[in-house]
Predict the structure.
Amino acid sequence: MSSTLTSPYRVGEGVVHLTITVGDGQLGTSTVMLGTERIASGEAIDVDVGRGLEITGNVLVCTTAVTDILPETNHTSVTYDLTGGLQPRKFIQLEDIDPDGTIVYLAVFTFTQ
Amino acid sequence: MFTVSCVKPPLSPARILLVVCLSLFSYQIAGAQQDGIPEFDKLRTPVAPGFVLMGIAPTSVARPGAPTDLAVAVLSRTDNLSAVPKNFALEVSPYWLFSHPELTLQQYKNPGLTESILHTASVSVATSSEAVSGAEDQTTSLGVGLRFSILRGKASGKADQYQSQVVDILQRLSDAVADSIAVAIARNPQLAADTEALDRRKREIQHAVQADPASSATLADAKQELIEALQHRQGLSVELAGAGLWDFKNGSYDRRDFVRWGVWLTPALNFENGSLVAVCRYVGDDLDPDDNLVDVGVSAILVSKKYAFSLEGVARAFVEGERDDQHRVAFTLDYEVGTIRWLTVTFGRDFDVEGENSLIALANLSFGFGGQRQLDASSLK
């Protein structure tokens, strides 16, 4: 079940920043929701989520649809980099999928103090 | 020489007779030329040089995609590394055995020197055993080859166009899942920490979105175009390969002979509608140095909607001994003609060792009934 993850993220006073990278040379695109508001979407996610105090208690939902386009491999991966909190965190999700298959990765982060 | 290919029924009896006669004539000529200089495409850097040097085309090749697959393939065929496998073929790309979360599609499309070598390096290993007639000895041959590209060129401009189409479809899928999950968590905040429940819901939504046959077909079509555009690279590419062949008497490591080795170099300049390709191959034979030879060739291809031209030349020189050099030149034209669709004509000159057939003209006339042209985009790769 490594294509779905949930994790708390401890914020401070700074601005929390999120980047999402689709790896293994595959093609993918993401959607980022803070609560029920969409704050970013597209192939490359590099977005300020908000100041720590303002987003405490909120939930960040990140989905990334990845499809296999390389004949060399069926590996797929998505990397989430969260910075601006008490500590930077990196989350990596890996899955081997069927040739020419498509997978949706889901990461749900809950901002805590 | 005349050949007829890709015959699509129904054909009239007269046309069938013509096809059969021309095919038989083609077969006779082809048979007479089997000992001649190889065709240009057969000299290009091979995908699996380890197999080529052995002169085999194994029907069953293990192509592991993960370290565990590689371990299983090797251990099972070598009896846990205690024996040399008798008939075994393995082709593996070490880089792609492992996941690379840091590798983006953009980097894959435009690799540097190091990335190009890493992405394209592949190792081919094959063994073949045969009993020597009238003797108790059995010889096991082992071929090992390495292939890689130091330059790959860049993905064609069409790749970006097809990539946008695929991204649009994927974005709808990603948005649908994100919207649904976000709403569900808003209604039930406890769900934000329930990984299993979230995973189930995610899969349900993905399944529902992908159940639309029209959407699936559109994605599949766009992906296929993208994959082809990514593989059909343009600009300068340089492929390199090397391979060695050993013989082991009765499978004994101590009774081994280094038999043959070869190196290949294929630089190419690929365009949207054409290519200029050179090949250079050296094959050394340690048992019979008179067979040491160098092959050099050049090919130019130009493709349009209605026609395609190809001009190629190949020369062979024997490094030792007194055998004469050989060379061949050939010109091929593909032209779209009415119901026959593609008419292919090849003219050439094939100069053999003795020089007796130096004026033989090689003409290859192909009627492509319902078939594909011989020179198409794949010829450019």
User: Anything to note?
Assistant: Residues 52-55 of chain A form the longest helix (4 residues). The first strand of chain A starts at residue 4 and ends at 10. Chain A touches chain B through 51 residues (CB under 8 Å).
